[in-house]
Structures are given as C-alpha cells and as structure tokens.
C-alpha cells in the first residue's frame, strides 16, 4: 500500500465503523473518521494514532447533503486524493411492523437509505477511480421495514454501479449487529478485501457475512468477577486465591497499604454482584 492511500469511513464512533477504521489505521492508511458526533470521531481517531496510524476526525451527518459534500471536500483539501469510502449504514429496528411508528420508519430511512443515496451521489460528482463499500443493517433484522431498507440499499448500489464505470461499489450485509472488533473481524476482513486491488472487477454485488455470536455479558467481565458469579466456585476459595498469588507479595509497607485498599474495593464489587444476583 502506498502511504498516499486515503480512506473515508463514516459512523466511526462505535460498532462496525470503529472496527473498520482501526483496521485501516493499523495498516498505514490515512483514515478520515467521520461521525455525526465529532467527539466520537475524535476518540476513534485518537485510538488509531495510539496504534501508530494516521487519522483525522471530522463532523459529518451523512443524512445531510451539505455535511456529506463537506466531508468529501475536506478529504481532498487535506490529502488531494481519496482511495475509497466505507459507508456504515446499520441503523436497525426490531419493532414489530404493525407497531412501527411513522417517525421511527423515517429515521431508519434517513439513516440508512438517504445517507447511502447522498454518499453515492456526492462520490459520483467528486471521486474517480475509487471503491465504495456500504455496510447495511444486519440480516437478523427481519421485520418487513428492515427488509425494505436493505433492499433499497442493495438495489440502489447495484443500479448506481451499472451506470458508473469509475467507481467500484459493493454492499456487505452482516449476520448480526456489531459487537466488538474481535468478534466482528470477519466483517472487517470482507470490507478490506472489497477495498483492495484483489477485488478489481468485483462490483455491484451484495455479500452476506456470517459472524460468530457476540460474547455473553459474563464473558466480558474480569476473570475474578466471572468466578464470583459462578455457583461452582466458593467465595471463600476465591478470596483465598487472590491472596495466595505470590506476585502480590508486597515490597514495602506503603505498597501493602495500597494493595489492601484495592483488595477491599474488589471484595466490595464481588459482594455487590452477589447481592444483586441473589
């Protein structure tokens, strides 16, 4: 990859957008992190910088034409070129179709379909010889309104691609909502492939990506907290094991005081978990 390669990624504050942005940043791309909330964009950009990458945050509401145009213009102002765009349009709803309010459907349409329309429209005017990957709402959002949203995105992308020879456009449909970079790695790999030279000639397609189940809540806790919540582990044994570890031997009386305070705090956390569970 050339150091001049630049990628614009939308909705990077969390979920798939953040995971994709971190991946490109780690590989040396110049990553333009766009999000409606500039603080979220700045946080993801800072994470990329901490990993040794190059990133800038910009505020961009992708449902507003002027923001979308400004985002593209900012890229060319700073870098003079743009290799590709990842537009994350994953707003979903599991509200039953018969209970869906009109304003909720309007929000879904704007966040997903309108934002995709604007991204493709502005890209056609400003970008040549580049690729675009759209990440759609997940496949497991199966209500009629979600099927229509995904259908609108994929049909629009395919029709746009058929009329435009200078932009390579594909849609990725994850099997579920975003979880964390580790469990969403397969989606990131798919996006990265479609944005690579290996995917030259692959355009106008929809790809379904099956992701592993996200971690259960208890799996995301510290090992000692998991143990505290496990009925098969006696609390007395757990507390004893915390103090048996030779690595916790204290080198000074001051350190002894600090560790004791931290242990008390940990024990309090355990008791809170157990009391809530009971």
- Rg over C-alpha atoms, rounded to the nearest angstrom: 23 Å
Helix content: 40-55%
The total domain count is 2
Unreliable sequence segments: 237-278
Task: Please give a handful of descriptors for the protein shown.
278 residues, Rossmann fold, 9 helices, 7 strands, alpha/beta, seven-stranded parallel sheet
Structural description of this entry:
By secondary structure, the chain is α/β, with parallel strands linked by helices. It folds into 2 domains: 6-209, Rossmann fold (3-Layer(aba) Sandwich), CATH 3.40.50; 217-277, no CATH class. It is 49% helix and 15% strand. The protein has 9 helices and 7 strands. It has helices spanning 15-26, 38-50, 65-79, 102-126, 144-163, 185-194, 223-229, 235-244, 253-277, and strands spanning 6-10, 30-35, 54-59, 84-88, 130-135, 167-174, 205-209. A 7-stranded parallel sheet has the order 3-2-1-4-5-6-7, sandwiched between helices. Strand 1 (6-10), helix 1 and strand 2 form a beta-alpha-beta unit. The protein is globular.
């Amino acid at each position: 990859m050339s150091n001049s390669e630049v990628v614009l990624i939308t909705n990077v504050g969390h979920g798939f957008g953040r995971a994709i942005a971190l991946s490109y940043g780690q590989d040396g791309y110049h990553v333009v992190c766009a999000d409606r909330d500039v603080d979220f964009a700045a946080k993801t950009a800072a994470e990329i910088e901490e990993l040794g990458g190059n990133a800038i945050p910009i505020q961009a509401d992708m449902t507003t034409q002027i923001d979308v145009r400004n985002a593209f213009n900012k890229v060319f102002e700073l870098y003079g070129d743009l290799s590709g765009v990842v537009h994350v349009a994953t707003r979903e709803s599991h509200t039953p179709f018969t209970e869906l309010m009109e304003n909720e459907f309007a929000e879904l349409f704007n966040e997903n379909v309108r934002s995709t329309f604007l991204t493709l429209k502005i890209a056609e005017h400003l970008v040549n010889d580049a690729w675009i990957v759209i990440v759609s709402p997940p496949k497991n959002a199966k209500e009629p309104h979600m099927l229509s949203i995904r259908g609108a995105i994929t049909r629009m992308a395919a029709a746009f691609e058929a009329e435009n020879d200078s932009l390579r456009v594909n849609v990725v449909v994850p099997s579920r909502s975003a979880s964390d970079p580790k469990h969403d790695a397969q989606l990131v790999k798919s996006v990265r492939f479609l944005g690579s030279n290996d995917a030259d000639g692959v355009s106008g397609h929809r790809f379904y990506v099956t992701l592993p189940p996200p971690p259960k809540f208890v799996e995301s806790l510290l090992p000692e907290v998991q143990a505290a919540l496990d009925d098969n582990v006696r609390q007395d044994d757990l507390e004893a094991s915390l103090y048996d570890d030779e690595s916790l031997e204290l080198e000074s009386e001051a350190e002894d005081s600090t560790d004791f305070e931290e242990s008390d705090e940990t024990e309090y956390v355990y008791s809170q978990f157990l009391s809530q569970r009971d």
